């Protein structure tokens, strides 16, 4: 896989993200280390430090989580699902490299895999400084981003192919972390993000994109390994071509002052209170067929949505330890979370879909009270 990673970053900077799932629950799988016999012994470009923690999710790094939240606050047009914190760079402040899955809020839009670069200054102000596209429509190669669960441990068939293809390599330890996407060829190619480290004292960690193939007979083989250089942002955007594209993509979301105005614009019947316990209603937006309201207590956020149809509208692609169904009133609600509480609840009444997403786990009792408020 020898291709240039380029994109129209200006588009995303203008119509950037607002997803209910502010932070993904993503942890590195139990290491299945394989090693290759060659490795370029070169310093990390730009002074970037690879995240060497076992848990690489944003939730495991409070500083990066806070910077991501500030940098993306109030943005709309693209849903970003943060997957992992890949690395940091100390400057006059701090740069963060956050792996994300992004989807333009537009009918038929396909997800892309990107690294979002965030700069936080010494005063705590944070902003998005650029993107590095890993899988996107604008790149050659025809890879399609994984739209399901990303953790390698949740993709057993891909993990099995990866292990077979990498068997017997020596010299560099590769630990698979995420299944990013696939490509239809003579069989199927799979792109796996791995943390890599040469097997010699003091070797630095790096990130690698490993491509493995399963042929039409089911045999697995290694196709390519490419070191992922942090800081290698896409060419941005001051050119006329990108400006033309930016003008051509409209943001489908509109902000409203009241829930009633948003519901009317969306064409759905919907009501929501001004407060949910310690949480206060702070943001209201809508597009055709969908209303989205946000509550915050200053640190955490609750996102409530109602939309036309029966599809899951939560925008929550996180992987949770606990998934269960519970009868709440006349509805069967799917509840997900990592502990005893609930991060996300989703259900439909046959005509409309509902979702509740919370950064902080809610008790089932609290969730029931919120459901009662919004289905009046």
Features:
nine-stranded antiparallel beta sheet; disordered N terminus; mainly beta; globular; six-stranded antiparallel beta sheet; 6 helices; 376 residues; Protein Transport Mog1p, Chain A
Q: What is the β-strand count?
A: 20
Binned, the helix content reads 10-25%
Structural class: mainly beta
Regions with little confidence, pLDDT below 50 for 5+ residues = 1-18, 21-31, 36-45, 237-249
- Tell me the number of helical segments per DSSP (H or I, 4 or more residues long): 6
Rg of Cα set? 21 Å
Shape: globular
Strand content: 35-45%
Ends distance: 54 Å
The largest pleated sheet is described as:
9 strands, antiparallel
Count structural domains.
2
| Helix and strand sequence | HEEHEEEEEHEEEEHEHEEEEEEEEH
- Average pLDDT, rounded to a whole number, is 80
